[in-house]
Fold this sequence. Notes:
Two copies of one chain form a homodimer.
Chain A: E1 4-9, E2 12-19, H1 25-28, E3 35-40, H2 44-50, E4 56-59, H3 68-80, E5 88-93, H4 95-107, E6 113-118, H5 121-127, E7 135-137, E8 140-144, E9 152-156, H6 157-160, H7 165-182, H8 184-191, H9 199-216, H10 236-246, H11 253-270, H12 276-288, H13 303-311, E10 322-326, E11 331-335, H14 343-349
Parallel strand pairs in A: 2-9, 3-4, 3-5, 5-6, 6-9
Antiparallel strand pairs in A: 1-2, 7-8, 10-11
Helix pairs in contact in A: 3-4, 4-5, 5-7, 5-9, 7-8, 7-9, 7-11, 10-11, 10-13, 11-12, 11-14
Amino acid sequence: MKEEFSFNFGGFSSRVFIRENLPSLDEVIPEKRRFLLVCDRNTEFLARKIASGSPLCVLPPGENAKEWAQVETILRCAREAGLGRDGVFIGLGGGVVTDLTAFAASVYMRGGSLRLVPTTLLAMADAALGGKTGFDLFGIKNLAGTFFPAETIYMCRQALDSLPETEWKSGMAEIIKTAIIDGEDFFSLVNSPSVKDNIMECVSRSAAVKGRIVEADPRETADSGNGGRALLNLGHTFGHALESALGLGRITHGEAVAWGTVRAAGLGKVLGITPPERAEAIGGVFKKYGYETAAPHPLLKDNTEFMKALEGDKKRKGGKPRFIVPAGQGAIQVYLEKGQEHLPEAIIRGSYS
Amino acid sequence: MKEEFSFNFGGFSSRVFIRENLPSLDEVIPEKRRFLLVCDRNTEFLARKIASGSPLCVLPPGENAKEWAQVETILRCAREAGLGRDGVFIGLGGGVVTDLTAFAASVYMRGGSLRLVPTTLLAMADAALGGKTGFDLFGIKNLAGTFFPAETIYMCRQALDSLPETEWKSGMAEIIKTAIIDGEDFFSLVNSPSVKDNIMECVSRSAAVKGRIVEADPRETADSGNGGRALLNLGHTFGHALESALGLGRITHGEAVAWGTVRAAGLGKVLGITPPERAEAIGGVFKKYGYETAAPHPLLKDNTEFMKALEGDKKRKGGKPRFIVPAGQGAIQVYLEKGQEHLPEAIIRGSYS
């Protein structure tokens, strides 16, 4: 298992450490600069382990807290802690904490220093790596954000000890998604019965895949070829629309991604891109982990909101609806042509199977 | 006079046009993408000339409006106008409008497209060029911001037709400051009696100087040699502290910069860096334009707030107070050594002249 990675994301260098224990404060800030440690009430006990005597910036937990008011709280704490332009922001928590801390760091005096300690499987597999920061606005996920990769990221098995079962499940969806993008080896690993024992191996492979894709297309501007960073959105076009239509917080992000990835495989099958046996295997692995994979989704009573969210999806480019779908190997991006616009709605209705 | 510049600011390309008339909408957005035109109530009439039939995002005018609530207004307007990731933000106004629009553009879906039409001399000389965006928070100027250069910037003499006299004066201070950083030629131009007739020549030279400095050090990270982008802060360390101590809005930014530049020349003289005749000439040109140049400043009753603001200045690095002072030619950065820490306060008290 690879325990250390160095990536270059559009001029920002990011180092990732896969390890057993939480880092000490000296490891996180060897240069002993002024810092602010940001956590939420769920991760406060971990934060105290790292910086027992230091003032903490403790946010309310939950996706609902991912809003400007929390960014302002972090900025106020930073100001009160006397951080200058070279001050260090440490975000310790799930994706909400890491995204908010990273956004605040990116705008504080036009950019401080950022280090992250993701404490959920989802944040390790997704939010903490790759430089996307953001918060929700007007009910839209991450409508405001920046590109600001952390300098160092510590992914520690110890942090997962206290993780609730729902959080495991949520994180696994992103890992399975990444395995689908990667290839057979990684897919077999997530499909194996002992995955919890090998979880840091999954985290490490996931970081390798995501890091490689983001290095090649840090700001998701690639628009041709195999899709660049947009590949990581496999399952997210359908998934985000589902989250939006149900209202934020009704299902976890992982559940949305799992359901969305199965839909993407369905769309790929109809388009002749995803081999039927691969679509089957993808549905199978998500079902095995207990995800809802059926179309129509049992909680979705009305497709109007869903289709509106799908059309407003910020991943759309140049008018043609774009989707990421699994291919024979890995995943590719496709644009729907004239006459295919009805397909997404047919897919979520369950008209194809 | 040079009428077109192309700069590369840390990977972002910026083109500047110095011209007579406001651009048409087709000139600003030749590719006809979705856009949002942001202005304030003072520049609304100019905005209507450019985009007569389009919805505008009209902000309240004034430095007091440079806060998150206005950023949120711009983001809401952008969302309502249906801007996607490739949407274009056009900021038309003074520095508050251009800074706010640029910040909003930089965070909208993690970065839209930005074009600026500065309408004040100050915004042409300073805010619109070079990629600094921001807004005030907790009473601190630009505490939150990003680095996000505009793709195109139109500096048009026509926009200055309706500029109030106080705005001329405010802008001239930045132009004089830039001339001091540049050299004798430019300094003679701003010292000439017909400067208003040659104002676009001044704007063009100012853009050339600022662009060159920012290209060499886009994110103000240079910390050695002649000072990099920090050189542009000539007069700003003292000036910002004065603005802070008096309370935002009591004097214009230009008045603060003028007064601060004369103080910087005074500090340089005491340190043996600024030749006495140059310090004299610098004081003279600001006086000629009607700026308050005396120390102590007649509005500043108490130095405590001033010194607190000076010490909290975000331009400080690594503990040693840093100042930009005029040299025999141009300007350089200096760090105060042990035993010199009392100098700034002595300078603002007028203990040296």
